[in-house]
Amino acid sequence: MGGNLYALDFDGVLCDSCGESSRSALKAAKIRWPWLFGQVDSAMETWIIDQMHILRPVVETGYENLLLVRLLVELQVPSVRKSSVADGLTVEAILENWSQLKPIIMKEWDEERDALIDLFGRVRDEWIDNDLSGWIGSNRFYPGVADALRFASSQLYIVTTKQARFADALLRELAGVSLPAERIYGLGTGPKVEVLKQLQEMPEHQGLSLHFVEDRLATLKNVIKEPTLAGWDLYLGRWGYNTEKERAEAESIPRIQLLDLSDFSKKLK
Ligand SMILES: [Mg+2]
User: Fold this and answer.
1) % of residues, the chain, pLDDT over 70
2) Which of 99, 109, 21, 103 lies closest to 73, judged by CA?
3) Which residue stretches of the chain have pLDDT < 50?
4) What do you get for the CA distance between the two ends of the chain, in Å?
5) Residue 25 in 3-state DSSP?
6) How many angstroms is it from 146 CA to the middle of ligand 1?
7) Which residues surround ligand 1, an ion (CB under 5 A)?
8) CATH, domain range 4-16+140-268
9) What radius of gyration, in Å, describes the C-alpha atoms of the chain?
10) Cα 66 from Cα 100, distance rounded (Å)
11) Which of 84, 139, 160, 168 has most Cβ atoms within 10 angstroms of its Cβ?
């Protein structure tokens, strides 16, 4: 015995999917609010996509990407402003205050969460159906991660809010890794804390050291609240979708270890 089990988040730990989610959001925003885009040229689209990378840590659920796209257009094009918050707003202020801004713009734009979720999902599905290789190519694995996964001697599990079939396709196509289906816990398999409980209870995992690698601080804090998960080593990946402020907070939490990308790859060996 004495081996290691790693439960790995997918987006922001293994795979940088921000380009994909930002492009899907831009496509969806054009369908939902076509009149917004009259003055948006390709240079402004590039600027929007770049800002979406900065803003990615605030996104909890995919549809919020659509709201961010529209807000960024409002920052750049005063004539299409319908929200009271856009005047004088900066990208840094959005990053800092998203949870306060979000309900205000939803109300002022007269938008509903469920409709935006439906639209976002539909646009992504259409992209995958029409152009699978283009969709796959808009994702990338972080440097060194594909090799680390291929040559890992630890037991690996993927624990993600992405649909398992998408994670599986990206692992195969971009990393050359095929994990058995039972190693990928995707959307619909329950909260991550419940998945970790299942993993630690499996008879074949008794005696293994347990490690969970995430890029979202709030998720690690949920694990810390569960006394039964006290045996897990918790890591926050510095390279993923978190902010300087969140990393500083994580430094002050003894249970959490901050991890650099190069150390992560070494750990899996
Ligand atoms: Mg993540």
Assistant:
1) 100
2) 109
3) none
4) 16
5) helix
6) 17
7) 9, 11-12, 215
8) 3.40.50.1000
9) 20
10) 17
11) 160
Locate CATH 3.40.50.1000 in the chain.
4-16+140-268
Residue 2: what pLDDT? Answer: 79
What is the Cα–Cα distance from 90 to 55, expressed in whole angstroms?
A: 11
Q: How far is the CA of 237 from the centre of ligand 1 (A)?
A: 9
pTM (2 d.p.): 0.84
**Alpha carbon distance 53, 19 (integer Å):** 8
Which distant-in-sequence residues (6+ apart) come within 8 Å of 117 by Cβ?
A: 61, 62, 63
Q: Give distance in angstroms: CA of 142 to centre of ligand 1.
A: 13
Distance 17 CA to ligand 1 centre (A): 10
Q: Which two tokens stand for residue 256?
A: 């959490």
Q: What are phi and psi of 202, to 5 degrees?
A: -65, 135
Q: Which residue in this structure is represented by tokens 């205050």?
A: 97
